[in-house]
Specification:
Blueprint lengths: L1 E6 L2 E7 L5 H12 L7 H10 L5 E6 L2 E10 L4 E8 L8 H15 L5 E2 L7 H9 L20
Parallel strand pairs: 5-6
Antiparallel strand pairs: 1-2, 2-3, 3-4, 4-5
Length: 151
């Protein structure tokens, strides 16, 4: 599936990830997640491609990767991960188009609720998601690293 957009001053496409985009995604994630990315992009991408690869969506402008989002669905809840847009391409509808595409794909799987997490100190991200209809929920997020797993 591919949708073309002309939003603001840029034209871009939203497509399902393919291996030819690896270097572009790595560069995007380096810019977007340099302080928080603990698992190499190659491992994250390989794990995503093994499970629900159609929920890994990117935005491209020409040959350049300018945005990404990964979705996941466990049959109960959907999740959004690795939402990123190049700083130079933000506020042009790229993030909105990516999120809407994955929301549509999740809904087609029967998903009725989507969750995501925002790291503390990122109020711009909170405002972006609120603009898209997401609400801050009173939850405690917990996690545990399982021996032998790096993600």
């Amino acid at each position: 599936m591919s949708d073309n957009f002309a939003a603001g001053p840029i034209a871009f496409s939203v497509v399902t990830y393919a291996d030819r985009y690896l270097d572009g995604v790595k560069a995007l994630w380096t810019e977007s997640f340099s302080e928080t990315q603990t698992t190499p992009a190659e491992l994250v991408i390989a794990a995503k491609l093994a499970i629900q690869p159609d929920l890994f969506v990117i935005a491209t402008a020409g040959d350049s990767v300018i945005g990404s989002v990964m979705g996941g669905y466990d049959g109960h809840r959907g999740w959004l991960y690795a939402v990123a847009v190049l700083k130079s391409r933000r506020r042009n509808g790229v993030g909105t188009a990516l999120i809407r595409e994955v929301e549509t794909r999740l809904a087609c799987l029967g998903c009725t609720k989507i969750n995501l997490q925002v790291r503390p100190g990122n109020p711009a991200a909170v405002l972006f998601y609120e603009f898209l209809g997401y609400l801050v929920e009173d939850r405690v997020s917990m996690g545990k690293r399982v021996h032998g797993l790096s993600a």
